[in-house]
Write a structure and sequence with these properties.
It is built from 14 helices and no strands. With 434 residues, it is an all-alpha fold. The radius of gyration is 21 Å and the shape is globular. This is MFS transporter. Keywords: Cell membrane, Membrane, Transmembrane, Transmembrane helix.
Length: 434
């Protein structure tokens, strides 16, 4: 059984365990702090250190490049470590890195290179933290509560994208962007304290299978092979890469489209872009309900079709016409996040505990690998064909991925499959690594 997703009549306990609530509070503080700091670092680079487009691009790349560089080794290592201890150490290192920004600023030694280094360290800590997170979640909630727990986590993360940038602007205006980064350091410490107070029950939805110690490279290859050999994991990983390519093109061009082509005021631009975050919050909260009502396979199929509403962006025009973009972003983000809640919950029960981090980081690495290529391609298309045409091409790529869902491995299923026999995924991984 895949928790409550497989049983329409069985509902999760209305109250999540105290261990999860303590961890969730710390995680909420941390993600809001991180969302705020992402904007603060950009403001600091642009306003205090006179960064040009090149440096701004390098700063942005420093945040996500750790997924490409460290994703696979991190997954292989974290699968062997205590998830709670790993996450606490990640928070402490990230807090120390964030604290260096105000320290260097006060002493007059802050440089663009230092900002890039801080962004890279915090991004690296995020890779390790996110790799360990699924293994902690399945230890602090029962299997039938996984959907609710993931719902809370995704909704919180989406809310941070709405509040974070605006809060960053207020903080920068009140105390300066550099000192504002100190709040992120504090948020990491709050997360670490909450994790230290979290007492996992030692359970796992899909327990680990005992395996002998292996060299790191073999463990990496085993994790990749698990994703490559399983038809569901392989399909979802490929879908994530294709759709991330399309969505990153939208994210790269949307501000230029609103401000440059439609002359939308900055306040209106902010409200339109915030609509996506609002949709994500709603999707995070409603994901488990969609799964219960439609099924954990039919639900994602329906949500993928709803996400094609991103095409409404192409109807956007001046004045009140920006409402089309707000509606498209809201509906699309709602569907994406709700789908993520359902599929993440399923993966926590489908993949054995000792493969969770490797499978998660393999899929995420593929998704993030599409981002830099998409940024380059969408920028070139915008320059050659115009921003609206470039948006149409990138959104068509996203929609093409979504339209494969009814014909993929979920075709004809109401629910995603139950876990295979405990050793089958492990055997698939060891086949190439042995």
């Amino acid at each position: 059984m895949v928790g409550h997703l497989q049983d329409r009549g069985r509902r999760p306990s209305p109250r999540l365990p105290r261990a999860f609530r303590v961890f969730w509070f710390g995680e909420a503080v941390s993600v809001f702090g991180t969302a705020t700091t992402a904007t603060l670092l950009s403001l600091l680079a642009a306003t205090q250190l006179d960064a040009g487009p090149g440096w701004m691009g390098v700063l942005a790349a420093a945040s996500w490049s750790p997924w490409l560089i460290l994703g696979l080794p991190a997954g292989a290592l974290v699968d062997r470590w205590s998830p709670r201890t790993t996450m606490i150490v990640s928070d402490l290192v990230a807090a120390a890195a964030a604290a260096t920004v105000p320290l260097l600023w006060v002493t007059g030694r802050l440089t663009l290179a230092a900002l890039v280094a801080v962004a890279f360290v915090i991004g690296s800590c995020a890779v390790v933290f996110r790799a360990a997170l699924p293994r902690l979640v399945i230890r602090v909630v029962d299997a039938e509560q996984l959907g609710t727990a993931n719902s809370r986590l995704y909704a919180t993360e989406s809310a941070s994208t709405v509040v974070g940038p605006g809060l960053a602007g207020l903080i920068a205006q009140a105390v300066s962007a550099a000192l504002g980064v100190l709040l992120d350091a504090v948020s990491f410490l709050v997360s670490a304290v909450c994790l230290a107070r979290t007492r996992p029950a030692g359970r796992a939805s899909n327990p680990a299978v005992a395996v002998p110690e292996e060299p790191l490279l073999h463990r990496i290859r085993a994790g990749v092979n698990v994703v490559a050999r399983d038809r569901y994991l392989r399909y979802f990983a490929g879908l994530a890469a294709v759709q991330n390519f399309g969505l990153t093109g939208l994210l790269s061009l949307q501000v230029l489209f609103l401000v440059g082509e439609l002359a939308a005021p900055q306040a209106v631009t902010g409200l339109v872009l915030a609509a996506g975050g609002v949709g994500g919050v709603i999707g995070g909260l409603l994901g488990p309900h969609v799964a219960r009502r439609l099924g954990s396979a039919r639900g994602p199929i329906a949500l993928q079709l709803v996400s094609c509403s991103c095409l409404l962006v192409l109807l956007t025009g001046p004045g009140a016409g920006v409402g089309w973009m707000a509606a498209g972003l809201l509906l699309c983000e709602f569907a994406i996040v709700a789908d993520n809640v359902i599929r993440t919950t399923w993966r926590l029960t489908y993949v054995p505990d000792n493969l969770q981090a490797r499978v998660s980081t393999t899929i995420q690495m593929l998704a993030f690998a599409a981002m830099p290529a998409s940024g380059l391609v969408s920028g070139w298309l915008g320059h050659q064909l115009g921003v609206r045409t470039a948006l149409a091409i990138m959104l068509a790529i996203y929609v093409a991925g979504a339209l494969t869902m009814p014909f993929g491995p979920l075709k004809g299923r109401r629910n995603l499959p139950a876990p295979p026999r405990p050793s089958r995924l492990l055997d698939a991984g060891l086949e190439i690594a042995g």
